[in-house]
Design goal:
The protein has 164 residues and is α+β, with helices and mostly antiparallel strands. The protein has four helices and four strands; from the N terminus they run ααββαββα.
Amino acid sequence: MRTLHNVYDRQMTLIEGAKQMSVLSLEIAKYLLRIAEQKSKELGIDESIAIVDEGGNLLAFHRMDDAKLGSIDIAQNKAWTALAMRVPTANLAKAALPNGESYGINTTNHGRIVVLGGGVPITWNGKVVGGIGVSGSTSANDVIVANAAIQAFEGLPHARIGFN
């Protein structure tokens, strides 16, 4: 039986002489989607879940059967926002209010900046390497689901990944 750690080890094996490798592979992203879906089911909610790589490109996406159609774009933009701003999207909400220090930030970047909770940067070794965005429920639930995936990522063996 293939275990996640075996798959992870295979994905994270560095190629001799490589200058850089992406920390997030499709295999890891699919694992994080499964963790997020499992947490969504535990909460009794249907979510859209997006993972972007370090360049902000969509790496993996999953929409649960009854997730709202509007949550598709929101989840992807939450993931992108978390990567681009290097903070959880929930951290932007208060500053984006009228009279806040970042009022209007959600209108920048062609409207991609999302200030609702549920977007969390994916970090490794102090570097933001991607983002996860979850949408379909309340911001509080979206954050819980995203953080479940983040905790799973942080629990993976990272000793063999990085930069030469």
